[in-house]
Amino acid sequence: SAVISQKPSRDICQRGTSLTIQCQVDSQVTMMFWYRQQPGQSLTLIATANQGSEATYESGFVIDKFPISRPNLTFSTLTVSNMSPEDSSIYLCSVTSGTGTTEAFFGQGTRLTVV
Amino acid sequence: RKEVEQDPGPFNVPEGATVAFNCTYSNSASQSFFWYRQDCRKEPKLLMSVYSSGNEDGRFTAQLNRASQYISLLIRDSKLSDSATYLCVVAGSYIPTFGRGTSLIVHP
Question: Would you call A104 and B96 a contact, using CB atoms and an 8 Å cutoff?
Fold first, then answer.
């Protein structure tokens, strides 16, 4: 298993500002993902964070809005840029071992409210 | 068609009842299947993996039907503490795909 520390756990931000969310894993993992979960909705994959290279974004998500860093195998950040109220959501960091298809582990989530 | 579909519910059942959830998936190449539980305002946590032969863990039984591309979760003798959202998860490569979840409410 993997233990993931995600912070901040929650924040209230002004529109037009940016917030960076950090995800720290207690062991080296191959695959790290960032998800968004809006109220009453399923988890939507934003991007796969690739170590040492640009993240792979899903349809509807772009690097300018959600820049991601992954400097090593245990750490990643997601920035929500130029926020609007529509960005209010829970953002979740997730990891899998990447060796075949295995279970996913999650950080505690960041509950973001944009006012 | 969504990749993973679940009835959102809510399923409202009395304590002690048996309740079953189904989940269908569209990618026939999917290889791994899971049920996750998500409590209100918490992150999802693995409940159980779903194997081709089916598997049981206490009051919980998971089944996989590859021919019909669905998985199921059966909860026997429901407890109040079983109230949560149950997420169906399907993985064909390295990236898990989540259903929107089925809400279960167990009442006294």
Answer: yes
- The partner residue sitting opposite B95, judged by closest CB among A42, A45, A109, is A45
Minimal CA separation from A109 to chain B, in Å: 6
B100: left (phi over 0), alpha (psi -120 to 50) or beta: alpha
Nearest-by-Cβ selection for B94 from A43, A96, A106:
A96
List CB contacts of B96: < 8 A, sequence separation 6 or more: A94, A96, A101, A104, B32, B34, B89, B90
Are the C-beta atoms of residues A1 and A11 closer than 8 Å to each other? no
Spell out the residues 6+ positions from residue A89 whose beta carbon is closer than 8 angstroms to its own.
A36, A37, A38, A39, A112
Minimal Cα distance from A96: which residue of B? Answer: B94
pLDDT of residue A94: 92
| Distance between CA atoms of residues B90 and A2, nearest Å | 20
pLDDT in tens, A20-64: 999 999 988 878 999 999 887 888 999 999 888 899 999 999 999
